[in-house]
Amino acid sequence: MKVKTLVLALGMCITLSSCGFFQGLFKKKAAPAPAPVVETKTAIRNHMDKVKSEALRIKNADIQQVIDENGLDAIKVTFNSGILFATGDADVAASSKEPLNDLAEVLNNNQICDVAIHGYTDNVAFRGFTPEQSVQKNKDLSLERAVAVAQYLQSLGVSIDQIKDIKGFGADNPVASNDTEAGRRQNRRVEIFLYASQAMINAAETGTLE
Fold first, then answer.
1. Which residue from 29, 72, 90, 121 has the least number of CB within 10 angstroms?
2. For the whole model, what pTM was predicted?
């Protein structure tokens, strides 16, 4: 199945926009003043500590607390692609369903978190293809795998609205050297980010985030 068809099959239209300008124009007088930025970040960090403690129960996954592009704490869940997929394949392997089931439980328990799913490959060329064609095929494969993970999570009740971003980066952004098999194995991965939704930020600003 081609990538475009896969994305369409997911039934997803992802549009991220900012409406802060309009919110500022129509702010109600009775609304409480936003908490200082430091307090907002602290509230989100404390909440993400709880999310991380849940995520640590996910089998065969590397869990890290990271900082997102807004400077807020987020959780990164990394699966080695060898755990999730057979070589060169984008169908979720039966052996990977248990850790993905664990992930789905975390996502369903934390629907106030937005989710991004990013796929990666190593830089090994495809037999019978030019280097340029191999680069594109790796990108296609990484996207197909990210979509497959999103579809499987959706089948377990994860809301399609929670998954805001699905991308395939191919061999870009390696985390290890592609000169060794051990390094290539690390580079073949799927990363899932749980980060603060606007609802979480709003709750943190008003002091109601648990």
1. 29
2. 0.81
